[in-house]
Design goal:
Layout: H1 3-9, H2 21-29, H3 45-64, H4 70-96, H5 98-106, H6 115-128, H7 133-160, H8 174-187, H9 193-220, H10 237-249, H11 256-273, H12 276-280, H13 292-307, H14 314-341
Helix pairs in contact: 3-4, 3-6, 3-13, 3-14, 4-5, 4-6, 6-7, 6-8, 7-8, 8-9, 8-10, 9-10, 10-11, 10-13, 11-13, 13-14
């Protein structure tokens, strides 16, 4: 750049102005840029749930067809790595900005996502149970204890928080209660019977209690904000995970409860499918990972029925597993692009 060009582009100080006064004024006028650490999203743990859930589905697929177990194990390892990365980021946020984290955990919308921390550990416990049983047991006890505490905390917040309005309700409200259904899937091998039945009972009763609340909000309050639109997929998860948990306890894949749960799950999948085009056009946000775990849970339920003597859903399960894997890959690539573009860990508009 020539001196003439530079003088035309760069600002000059007024006569008599102190050196650096202008740059200081410019700095005062410019909007403050908040550090990304302050905005590490709770929704990042949905990535762990999606990867871990996909690992479980591929493990079941390997029992139906001759598929290497390393696909499942590779996804489980990615889930563990994702948990360490997201967990380290959120822990650093909690240390540096404790007031922000406290506000999130008390927020009528965001508080539902706090359960993804514990559910992530429980899903990973299931994903590694067949080849790392010691780690699986550790993950179960930490995740189970966290799930029990978070369920009570979130329900208390919803009851006592006077700011909760119908518009704050969204399908992710199922996460804190239905996360209790994830615990028995791994916990039946590690915990006393009374504990796993506690989790199953809480998950079932509160899912059925919340279902009309969430449906009323969806039917009467209006469409969800774009960032929350992917949570519509969460409607698939409760019947899918409940069916898996029931069959780890006393159920069989041919009994009435299992068939009812699979039927409801199938209906929710169809409802999600007819909204796919609308959901596909929503702007990217980390919340798109909300698609992955419910789809993986449904694929697991279909394949588990096939493996354990229920209705043979192998081809339905295979098709859904293919869709789930494509979604995980697509969302993973888009998340990587978002990280490179600086779209992740930014203040929500």
């Amino acid at each position: 750049m020539s001196a003439t060009t530079a003088s035309a582009v760069l600002p000059t100080a007024e006569p008599g102005a102190e050196p650096g006064a202008e740059s200081a004024a410019e700095g005062a006028a410019a909007p403050a840029v908040e550090p990304r650490l302050k905005h590490v999203p709770l929704g990042g743990f949905a990535m762990v749930m999606g990867l871990g859930g996909s690992a479980v589905a591929w493990h079941l697929a390997a029992q139906v067809w001759s598929i290497t177990p390393w696909v499942s194990r590779g996804l489980a390892v990615l889930g563990l790595v994702a948990f360490l990365v997201v967990g380290a980021g959120y822990l650093a946020k909690a240390v540096r900005y404790p007031a922000v984290v406290r506000a999130e955990w008390a927020h009528p919308v965001k508080s539902a996502f706090t359960a993804t921390v514990a559910v992530s550990l429980l899903v990973l416990s299931i994903a590694v149970a067949g080849w790392l049983p010691g780690l699986s047991q550790v993950l179960f006890w930490i995740g189970g204890a966290g799930q029990a505490v978070i369920t009570v905390m979130v329900l208390r917040n919803w009851i006592q928080n006077a700011t909760v309005q119908p518009g704050h309700i969204h399908p992710a409200w199922f996460i804190p209660v239905v996360g209790n259904h994830v615990a028995p899937i791994a916990g039946v091998d590690y915990a006393p019977e009374v504990i796993v039945w506690y989790f199953f009972g809480v998950g079932l009763v509160y899912w059925l209690g919340l279902l009309p609340v969430v449906l009323t909000r969806l039917f009467t309050v209006g469409t969800l904000p774009a960032r929350l639109a992917p949570t519509l997929a969460i409607l698939v998860a409760p019947p899918a995970v409940a069916a898996l948990a029931w069959n780890r306890l006393e159920g069989t894949w041919t009994d009435p409860l299992s068939l009812i749960l699979l039927g409801v799950m199938t209906m929710q999948l169809l409802l999600l499918a007819v909204q796919a085009d609308t959901l596909r056009r929503m702007p990217f946000a980390i919340s798109v990972w909300a698609y992955t775990f419910p789809l993986a849970a449904a694929a697991s339920a279909y394949l588990a029925s096939t493996v354990h003597g229920g209705v043979d859903y192998r081809w339905v399960g295979a098709a859904l597993l293919a869709v789930t894997t494509a979604v995980v890959i697509g969302v993973g690539v888009r998340t990587g692009i978002g990280v490179r573009r600086g779209e992740i860990c930014v203040k929500e508009g």
